[in-house]
Here is the input.
Amino acid sequence: MKERRFVRELLESKQRVLALSFVVGVVFLFLVIRLWHLQILNADDYHAMSENNRLRFVPVAASRGDILDRTGTVLVSNRPSFSLAVIPQEVKDKEALLTLLSDLLGLDRAEMAERWEKSKGRAKYYPIVLASNITRDHVEIVEENRLRLPGIEIEMKPVREYASSQLAAHLLGYIGEVSEKELDLTGFEDYNPGDYVGKNGIERALEKELHGGDGGRQLEVDARGRVLRTVSESYPTVGNSVILTIDAAVQKQAEHAFGDQAGAAVAMDVTNGEILAFVSNPGFDPSLFSGKLPADVWQGYLDDKRHPLENKALSGQYPPGSTFKMITALAGLQDNIINESTSINCSGSYDLGTSTFRCWNKNGHGTTNLRKSLRESCDVFYYQLGEKMGVDKIAAAARAFKLGSPLGVELLNEKSGLIPTTEWKLKRFGKRWFHGETLPVAIGQGAVILTPIQLASMTATIANDGTIFRPHLVKRIVDTDGKTLRETKAEIIGTASFPKESFRLVKQGMLDVVNAPGGTGGAARQYDVKVAGKTGTSQVIKMGGSKKSTAYQFRDHALFVAFAPFEKPEIAVAVVIEHGEHGGASAAPIAGRILRAYFDGKKPARKNAAAPSQEEDEDTDEPDEKRGPTVMKVPRTNGDAVHD
Here is the structure.
């Protein structure tokens, strides 16, 4: 009996243990499943909730460095602006939040959603900028509705402030939000969506120096977003400042001189290559590009036939017209084809085979030597000279001046221009060079094209007897304490090796252009400084016979180059007026105003001195010169002529 009872109790005990073990096993299994659910299935959500109750990152954008002119005048500085940002980890209903923001602030919902989408993959506690440059009214609305806008923050970022709305716009450039494409480029690893970067001009070319380094604060907050303590903090580093070579006073006068005319001007120090004025007209307001550019403004820029967004001083390519005659003259002197005494008879045209090439003066200039050919811009003199030399010798002289290739100025997208040769035509068109094609090239027409900055460099090189300096716009870069970090030194990139006597003869002719009776550039004359220059006019299209179009886009370009003082040159100027027709009438007066501003600024005591009026100082009855064709057609029956 006892044994049976023992066995029964043992069985009952095992059953109880088994039942208890089952219960324990079920509970343990439930705990394992729950743990898997918490730590694996919903780990991201709970991690975000945990971080939401603990950390928040507040970025602090760095201020970009200032941009100043050579005298210390501030051209570009900074002002505060507001951005609308969201912290993704604090948002439960993204779609509802975007809809509410759109309703309250009138912002584009699709654009905000796109910005949010592009920022996927970044830390969820890092703010995403949904809208930049919002107004103070927007800020007030956000603050009034903060409880309804979880995760929304207002960030203050510095944006650019321009001392003058359009002064040197193409030179300075503008900033805008970094694009998705830019974020994938080398050098943009430290940038985040919503950051501002330089888009063109100096802002783009010196982005690394100007940008600075962003900072931020890691804050510990409670569930309601209240700050408990600062976990860590890094201070932003202000960008370095850039001192440019331009003189704001000269730049301003140069731009005012253009008025509504389209074109470009470059003024350069002939002793070191520093650019004193850099004009592309018309300009634009760079501050508009920091935010969302109004559609009507953008369309207005696109529809303007004067192309205000094009940097004409750097990228505009124009036939140089008679301003190129100095190159042809130097080539002829070097090759001993002409000398100071060489003269020809200009009857108003020159025949070559079955083609007739006209001079601007249909009655002719009569007996003409080198000096007179420059003073009165006789085309026939250079037709005959070009025929004797051939295009390759003219091209060799031009390339000695580094024409036909970029000069290496700091800005991006510099164009090279073109100096044609027999080899170039054969390679480009698969055709040989015809003898008659050289004649237009000799007077700066045909396939010859140069940029305004090349024209200025050419003139400076003539003025200093052959030293070619690299044109540069940056004088030095300084840190926030004013310490110079980098200074641009004058760099000689070549030498135009022509005899000094050749330069003297050419410069004497240029002096006559501005100062002698019959000269075509009297409008650039100064009452206290001797100016040497050369007018030019270049055709945009070929006009047959006596036909002449007055439509704006078909009018001739007007050009003028000059240097001063004649005795000891300091400054060289090149001016191009698109469709300005006559260099002596349109471009020379602008060059005169640029020179006046330069010399007045150099000698302040002269600012209030009484100067003779332009009307009294100009030879208003002097004839303008005309020009040969731009479009190259062989065989050619007529050489069209246009005024300088």
